């Protein structure tokens, strides 16, 4: 039966009450109805009806009260049974009479299982004493009590609760206990954690106060902190610290690196700049737990975070200072302009541009420096920049001395700390304007040059899609490809169609390689033009890669058809010349062999006389020569140096030998007993030379002599040999024999050659050489020269001619090194031996 329905006993009770009302004095009942008057009967019925209405009203009030009671019971159920904290109603003995869902959930039991169970059986044994005193105080005092203790769930888990209890009246007026159970496990854990972290909190407080001290530098902070961190550790008891920051290290006094380490990074603006490292000097904790507590790990992380935050803030401040410094020292003028048009801030460059001091500029207005700015238009201009946020213009500003100059002004609208500003950047563009003028002039000049440059100046562009076009080309491109600039501006197809089929692939490959390697493109190729036919072109261009991936070549193309024709003709001539050169080389080789054959194959063998020679041509065909002819009483000898090192030199030496032989033949026929005169022979050679009509630049240098076999008298005559003969005397002295004369040439008409005489004494040596020995240069361009030659002669005066020649040219080779031989070498030595 529902609680809001009336039982039969309830109806019976109501009936009895109604009968009592009827029998009460409130309604007087007549003893005899028959004796009642009609009026009395009506009065009696009226009172009955009134009582009936009163009963009905009472019934309605009773039903309404019963409805409110049911609603109250429902709210009580919601408050008690669905409350977020545990509620229990206990008997005085501590048994559970009623329990809500939260309390049952705490204990991991159903409400049915908890009914009539003593609450104490769920309290931890260690806290039973606390619960006992809690109940005792409750009943002794009658006042609400509370306590904190541990309870155990059905699964064995222990948790902390706060119990609150007060005495209520139970059924049959027996006292009961209303108990509140609240799970405070997390709160207790946090409280325990705070108690354990006393040292750590001190460490955090110390760190916080330290980093907030702006008088301390970063170096001082880290140095002090490295010595204090160990004081904030509980376990391990012995630690040491190393702080690394920005390349520096800060060590505690007892620092000793171990393998047991606790580390946390120091970050500055998101970038790792250092770290804190705590090393355990105890190898393990005495209680066998982990070496570093979680709280201590948190401490190091908190300290590193505090340092990171402070150092980042300091870095930001430095950046702000740097930013302000950068603005002050910016290469452009900076103006902060108020809505009224006044300058609130100017930087150093602004003062420099306008030749004002900061104090003078601050407070001035825009029209003071910009004569083009109309003050009455200020509001309109301000609204314009406020709406656009950005504006750029060129104007003329005026300096303090009245000088005007062109300037570029960039205006920006901004708000800072609830204030409006126009931020103006001013750049003196005097130099830029001058450069722009120069660029215009240069552009006009380049256009003029392009118009006068042979061929066509052009730009060829390779687009990312692989297509080609000519963004720019002079009008002369028509003379090159028979296309107009407009025809190839967007598509270069017509140009490529003009390429000769035999050259197309080569040209395309060269363009591709130039694009891949960004190397200069240069080619000579043929084109087939509709009107001109086949033409030769030379193209040159330098590539440039653009940000969009395209490549553009800047270059020139010109028609080289006529040059190619000339080159073809020259090639034909070259081939002819090569044939002639081959023939000439063959003749030169023959001449060289003849030249060698003309040299004596042996030297005279004369009593008391020794001879030695040295000959080395600089080219295949040399210009030097030497010869010796032995007669009955004397010996004729000479060295020569003729012009050239080719066939002409060989021809001159042949002429020389023939002229001397003709003279000797003639003298033998006419003057059989007369001694030979070197001067007469040279005179004869000179006369013959003029008769042969040699060219004016042909010449013969000749040193000729005779030596008597018995008297050892030497006669010498010189025709242009530059360096005189040297005489090495037996006592070791060296001297030159004065003997000079003009070379044999066509212009040498009236010169008379003479002889000079000298008697060779025993041990004397006569040394004769052409100029190739003396004029050779080494790697430093120093000449061998007479002085060095004389020194070698002195050092080797007592040697035989052959040995002396070896010494002379051994020293020469050492002097010359790897340098090329510059001229022919010829030497002739004659020595009179001791009898």
Describe this structure in words.
This protein is of the alpha+beta class and 835 residues long. It folds into 6 domains: 8-78, no CATH class; 83-191, Beta-Lactamase, CATH 3.30.450; 205-323, 2-Layer Sandwich (Beta-Lactamase), CATH 3.30.450.40; 329-433, PAS domain (Beta-Lactamase), CATH 3.30.450; 453-559, PAS domain (Beta-Lactamase, 2-Layer Sandwich), CATH 3.30.450.20; 599-832, PPM-type phosphatase domain (Phosphatase 2c, domain 1), CATH 3.60.40.10. The strands form 6 sheets. The protein has a 5-stranded antiparallel β-sheet, with helices on both faces. A 5-stranded antiparallel β-sheet has the order 11-10-14-13-12. A 5-stranded antiparallel β-sheet has the order 16-15-19-18-17, with helices on both faces. The radius of gyration is 65 Å and the shape is elongated. It comes from Halarsenatibacter silvermanii. Residues 45-75, 560-594 form a coiled coil. InterPro entries: Bact_Sigma-Reg, PAC, PAS, PAS-assoc_C, PAS-like_dom_sf, PAS_fold, PAS_fold_3, PPM-type-like_dom_sf. Keywords: Coiled coil, Hydrolase.
